[in-house]
Amino acid sequence: MFSFSIAIITASLYIKLSSRPFPPARISDIDENTKRQFSNRSMENTLFFVPVNSGMLHWADNLLCALRHVQFDTTKMIFWALDQPAQVVLQNEGYATYHDPSFFSVSGNENYRGDTKAYKRMMLERPKFFIDILATGYDILFVDADTIFFQSPLLIRDMGADGVFSTDQREFYQTHDAFRDVWRRGSKMPPICNGIFWMKSSPATIKLWHDMLDNFDSHAWWTAVWRLMYFQDDQRGMDMLLNDGRAKLVEPFPSGIKPDMLLDRYSQKAELSIRLLDQTAVVNGHLLKNRRSEYELNLVELRRTGKDRMAVHLNWDTKQMTKEQGAKQLGFWLLDEKGNCNLEKV
Fold first, then answer.
1. Is 131 helix (H, G, I), strand (E, B) or coil?
2. Does residue 323 sit in helix, strand or coil?
3. Which three-class secondary structure string do you get for 185-225?
4. Helical pair 57-69 and 323-330, crossing angle rounded to 10 deg
5. How far apart are CA 291 and CA 279, in angstroms?
6. Structure confidence by residue, pLDDT tens digits, 72-128
7. Which of 93, 153, 171, 327 is the most exposed place for a label (fewest CB within 10 A)?
8. What are phi and psi of 239, to 5 degrees?
């Protein structure tokens, strides 16, 4: 009954959204100087953004340390500075930044012990950012600061797809049906994570974020119910939109998903091609922390095929353990007591 209800609501949303014309572009504050900065840092038309505020600067340092280890050119990164103090610090250290003062933001670590109201409100601002960036014509590689890389982040890109996402599933697909998840929003696309993803710039991908923003901003009663039950933030919103019939999963599939699992799952209306990154190659914190033994076994199997891990995303329920505590416990805190990069820890 619960799954049936989700299906009915999702279908209703798709009918409402797909029947509307493409929405007008947002009026952004991206000026010519910013566009030149984007042009100078574009990597085959991809801009690499990392969101950070003052309370997360130590995570930016941790990520930068890992990227130096894989010899990634960090001058090509752009930090989305959520607050102006963070922008000042990063610019003084020589890093490129982008800051839009019209977006709501605060300076604290709002996910230190659970999600504060301010944290949730900041997540509701994200669609505006993605619309503005994708509307410039550049593709976007978006990575949360609480991430560690073991290979170049650019390997996430796939020009044959419209989007490439890491996953937020709490079980490995090798032992759990990827399309059956009690936490998420439909049977067409397994749960994605907006903490590590690449997206191609196109009218269809920009419309995803417009449709999400419309739901966040709407005063209609049905969208209020929608937000309360399923559409609480940008990640859950993207789950819903990718399950409303407009998207389909394409190869190469992550381990545990087979081609026959996709038979009769999509209609001809599925215009967006979406890839999911392998759960072991790019592991989320829930799996890393709560399915550690399975992860280690899957990592051995991944390496047996000639591949290796690419990244770990240190995201989990911080009410139980802070990200800092978990990173140190798992061996992924790369800074010494003075906050300096210690490459011996990588």
1. helix
2. helix
3. CCCCCCCEEEEEEEECCCHHHHHHHHHHHHHHHCCCHHHHH
4. 30
5. 12
6. 999 999 999 999 999 999 999 999 999 999 999 999 999 989 889 999 899 989 999
7. 93
8. -55, -50
